[in-house]
Amino acid sequence: MYDVLYCLKIKHKTIIYDLLIMKLIVTMTLLGTLVSYGAAFSQKITLKVKNAPLAKILEQIKKQSNHDIFYNVDFIESLGNVDADFSNMDLEDALNVLKKKRAIGYKITDGMIYLFPQKEMQTQKWTVKGKIVNEEGEPIVGVSVLENGTLNGTTSDNNGHFTLTDCKPNATIQFSYVGYFMQVVQAGQNDMLITMIRDVAALDEVVVVGYGRSSRKKINSSVSTLDIDNVAKMPVQSINDGIAGRMQGVIVTSNSGAPGAKSNVSIRGAGTPLYVIDNVIRTANDFVNINPGDIESYSVLKDAAATALYGAQGGNGVILVTTKKGRNGQMDINYTFNQTLSQPTIFPKKLSSYENLKAINELYRFEGLQIPTPDNILEYYRTQEKPFEYPNTDWQKVGLKDHATEQRHDLSMTSGTEKLTYYASGSYYNQNSNLRTDNNHNKRMTYRLNTVSNFKEVNLKVTAGLDGFIEDNVIPNSSTASSYGAFYQHIQQKRSSQLAYNEFGLPSANTTDNPAIELSNQSGYYKSNSRIFNSVLSFEYTAPFLEGLTLKANGNYNMWNSKDKSWNLTAPSYANGSKTPLLGNPPNLMAQRGDGSTLLLQAYLLYNRQFGKHGVDFTGVYEQAKDMGSSLTATRQQYQILFDQFVAGPTVDQLANGSESESGRAGYVGRFSYNYDAKYFLDASLRYDGLDLFPKQKQWGTFYALSGGYAVSEEKFFNNLKERNILNYLKIRGSYGLVGSAEGISPFTYVPGYSINANAWVVDGRPVQGTSEPGSLPSTMFSWYSIRERNIGLDFSSMNNRLSGSFDYFYKRTTGYVVADTRYAATLGIGLPPINFDPGAMRRHGAEFNLTWNDKKGDFSYKVGVNFTYFDQLWERNPGEDDAALKNPYTRQSGAANWGLETGYINQGFYQNNEDLLYGARRISSINAIAGDLRYQDFNGDGKIDGSDQIRIGDATFPRINYGTTIDLGYKAWSLSAVIMGSGNRDRYLGSIMQGSNPDNMLIYGFQQDYWRTDNTDALYPRQVSSTGVNGNNNFVNSDFWILPSRFVRLKYFQLGYDLKAHVLKNTKFKQFRVFASGTNLLTISNTKKFFVDPESDQNNANYPIQRTVSIGVNVGF
Q1: Are 471 and 431 in contact (CB under 8 A)?
Q2: Torsion angle of alpha carbons 1032, 1037, 1039, 1042, nearest 10°?
Q3: Which end of the chain is least crowded, N or C, by CB within 10 Å?
Q4: Is the pTM of this model over 0.85?
C-alpha cells in the first residue's frame, strides 16, 4: 500500500500495525482503569518482621496497597515496636491485626488510610449535608469541603450538594473554591446553605486554546467563549442551532428545517471552520452530532494568533470543545426529557381555484384574448358543485400535517474516587417532518464514556474516552421527488385547480408531480445510516525532576461507515372515476456503502513556570494523522417485480462503482508565552505543516503568529479608576500572523491522471473493454493559500466587574488561490493544471464587540449580553474572471467593495402613462411595453437600454451584519432565558416562483394579486401578462426590482423553567426536578413576511421551511 505519510518523510510502522496497537491500548487502558478501581479494595499484604517500628511497617503497607496513609507521627512513635506476620493477607485484615495489638483506629476512604487512637472511634459522629451556591443562587460544582484540623473532606456534586460524614459534633467546616473567598462555618445537624462570594481579584476564566488551556487575562488573541450550560438546556437539534445569536464573530445560518438538517457556522464570514474535540481534529459531521449536554467548554479561535497552531487547516477559524470528565464523589445521575411540536415559521397563503382562474381571465380580457376559463365553468369552481371535475385543492392540507413531532432523551452519570473518575452518557433523538407520510424520520443515538485514572505514585494521569453516534434517516422516494425540498416545492407550486384524489379517494393521475402520489406509503424510500466510533487515549506525566514540566502522549482512532439504499418506486395513480391503477415507471434500486478511519498520534512537551514576576509557558507538539476511506456503489434498473433486493433485478444495465482513498498530514507545533508581572504579555506560535495534497517540494509550509498585550489596569496610576469602579480592568492587545488553507484542492493533481471509461467499444470488429483517456495536465507548482491576518482588540470590565466586554477590529488578506487557467484549454484540447494564481487576492475586514451586564438584587439575578459583528470583503482580483469580464467596472467583482447579488438593471418604477413610454429610454427587446410595465435606468446614457446598462445589484445572501441579545433571569426557583438575534446587509432574489413569471405558477399566491392596474398604480407587482412574450419579457429580466432585502430580528430561543425541588419536592431524594417550556423562532420581524418566506432561508418556497418549535420538558437529578 502506498504510504502517504512516507511521502512526508515520516518514519513509522505500517498503518495496520498502528491500528491494531491503538485498539489494543484503548481496550487495555479502559479495562485497566476499571479493574484498578475494584482492585484497590482487594490488595494483598505480605510482610514478616519482628520488633520493628510501627512507622516502617506502615510504609510497607503503603507500598503494597498503593494507599496513602495519614497519621500523627508522635502518636505512632508512642506505640513502640511491633511484630508483624502477614501472608497474602487482605489490607483490612492486616490493619485489624495492628488495631488489636496497639489499639489503632483506622478509616479507608477514596484510596487513603487514616489512623488515629482507637478511643476516638467511640466519639459521637455527625453527618453534615448541604448545598453550595454562588451569589446568583446557582450551584457550584467541585467546591472543597473540609473539616478543620482533619483530613476529612469531600467536594460538591453537579448540583452543588455535599455530604460530609464522620464529623465531630459542632465541627468547623471550611469551604474553598478557585475564584471565591474561603468560608469557615460551624456545622449544624440541619442542612446547610453556603453562599460563596466571588473574589474578583482572584477570578480569572480558564479558556481552552489550541493544544492547551490559558487564563483569559493572559490571552492576546481573539477568542470567544460560550456559556455552554444555557445551550445544553435548550432542546435544539444540534449544537450549531443552539449558538445562534450568542457570540460575536460567529455567524450561524439556517437554510432548511428538514429532519437531520444542520445549521452552518462561519467565523467572521469565512468558510467552514476547523472543529477540534478534546484536542483531536474531527469532521463537521462529528461535531454537529455531539450531544450539547456532554460539552464542558466551548471556545472559538478567530485570529491568526489563535489559529496559527493549526497551520493550513486553521485558515477559516477553529472551534474547540472539551467534553465532560468524571468528578470525585458520590454518583450523580441526570435525566432530561423533552417533547417538541414544530411547524413552518410562515405558511404561504394560496389563492383558491376560483380566485386564481378569475384573476387569469382578467389578464386575458385586458389583452383582448379569449379567456381560458368560461364564466359558467368558473362558477363551478366557486360553488364546488362538481369538485372532481372543477376542484379546489388545498395542497398544503394534502401534503402537510399541522405539526411535526420531536422527542429527546438524555441520560448521564458521573462518579469516582481520587484514583478513578468517570463520566458516561447516552442520548436518543427522534425527529419527524411535516410531510403527510409515515415514511420519514431522522433518528440519532449518541454515547460517551470518559475515564480519568490518577496514578499519583508515579505522577501519571491516564485519560481514556469512547464516543460515537448512530444516525438513521428515511424519506419517500419516487420518480418525481426524493428530497424534502422537492416535496415542499411541489406542494407550494401546485394550483388549487389541480386534482389530488379522484372520486374514490385514490391519487389522481391527471396531475403531474402529484404530492399525494409522491408521499404515499406505497412509494419507495431512501434510507441512509451512518455510524461513527471514536476512541481517545492520553498519558500525562508530571516530571518530578523539573518543576513545571509535563510530558504527554495522545492517540486517537476514529472509524466511520455509512449505508445508503434507494428504492425509487412511484406509487400507483388513478384516472378520474377509476379504481384501476395506472402503470408507472419501473422502479430502480441503488445501494452504497462507505467506510473509513483516521489514526492520529500526538506527543506533547509542556512547560509552565513562574520566576518571580516573570511567567513563561511553552507548548511543543508533534502530530501525524492518516486517513483512509473506501466506497462501493451498485445499481439495478427497470425492475419487473416489486422486490427491493438486487437478486430480483435485471442484470441489463447494472452498474457497480467503487473507490479507495488515503491521505496523510503531519505537523510540528510550538508556542511560547511570556508575561511580566501579569501586566505585559507576549506570545509567539509556529507550525511547520505537511500535507500530501501537494507535490513533493511543496508539501511543507511554515505558519506563524506574534501577539502582544498590555494590561493597563495593572499600572499604579490606574488604581484610582479601579477603586472607584469606573474601570476595573483594561487590556489592549494586537496580533499578526500567517495561516494557510487547502480548501477545495483536489488530491494528487501533481501526478498524471487518467479517466476510465467502463463502456465497451468495438475496434476493427473486436470488442474493447475499459478504455481510458488522459485528464488534466499535472502541475508541480502549487501549494497552500496564504492568509495574512491582523487583529487589534481590547478587553475591559467596569462597575465592580458587573459590566464587561471586548472589541476587535480584524483584517485578513488571502492570496495564492489554486485555479486552472482556462484561456488555452480549448486550443490544447485538455485542461491546464492548477497553479497558485498570484494576482488573485481577497480582502476581508470587519469589527465585532460584546457587552455583558451581570448582577443580583436579593433573590433576583439577571444577566444581559449584546454582541455585534460586521464584515465586508472584496476581490482585489477574482481568479475566476477573464480579461473580458475585467474590462467592465460595473459588472466585475474584482475591485468591487460590494460584489452584488446579481447583475441586472436599475428599475425606475412602473410606466404610469404614455408620456413615460414616449419620452423615456426603452429596453430594446421590450416590445409592446405599456403602462404598468417596469421601466429601467439608461445607466450609460446612450439613449437605449440594453445589456450594457446592467450593473451589480443587491447585497449578497450571506449576512454582513449580525447581532444578538442574550437574557438570563433568575428568581428563587424560577429561571428565564431568551436569545434575540438579527442580521442585516443581506438580500435575496425573488425567482420565477415568487415572480409568477411561469404560466404554471402565475397568480397562485394572494400577494401576487397586488399587481399594477389603473386603479392600483402603487402596486407590489408590475402588470401581469398572459405570457412573457407579450412584452418581450420586460418585467422579468434581471433587475433590482426583484431583490428583496432580507434583514430581520427574531426571538430565536425562549425558555421558562421552575425547579420543583425548591418547594414541592423539597424533602425528597431528588437533587433537582426542573420543569420547563421552550420555544424557538417564536417571533420574527422582517420585510420578507409579505412574500411569506422566512428571512433566514435563501430559498423562494422551494425548500423545506425553517421551523417554529414549542416544547415541554423535565430535568431530573438524583
Answers
A1: no
A2: 110
A3: N
A4: no
